[in-house]
Recover the amino acids of this structure.
């Protein structure tokens, strides 16, 4: 399920974790941080575990600072770029650039 604003519903993450653990997990605590970078910084600071974008944590995985709890078990989620139909040519150009960069960097379904 998708929440407004493109955030992944916690239930989808919990279901992914349940599948990896082979049982239903009870997740009691939740932290909301303002950006993926802040979430990674919290993970690096031993605040807990996290589901992070692979492209952002690759250097930490490579040097052993972070480890995969369940290797080779990614959770791919759909991302959407929204803009007004009556957008200016500047916004349309920005949209083309963002969509093009995303196609080159993200997993395509």
């Amino acid at each position: 399920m998708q929440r407004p604003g493109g955030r992944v519903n916690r239930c989808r993450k919990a279901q992914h974790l349940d599948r990896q653990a082979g049982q239903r997990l009870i997740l009691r605590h939740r932290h909301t941080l303002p950006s993926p970078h802040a979430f990674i910084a919290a993970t690096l600071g031993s605040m807990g575990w996290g589901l992070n974008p692979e492209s952002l944590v690759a250097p930490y995985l490579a040097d052993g600072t972070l480890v995969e709890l369940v290797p080779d078990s990614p959770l791919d989620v759909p991302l959407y770029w929204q803009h007004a139909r009556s957008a200016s040519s500047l916004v349309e150009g920005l949209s083309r650039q963002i969509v093009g960069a995303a196609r080159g960097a993200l997993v395509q379904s």
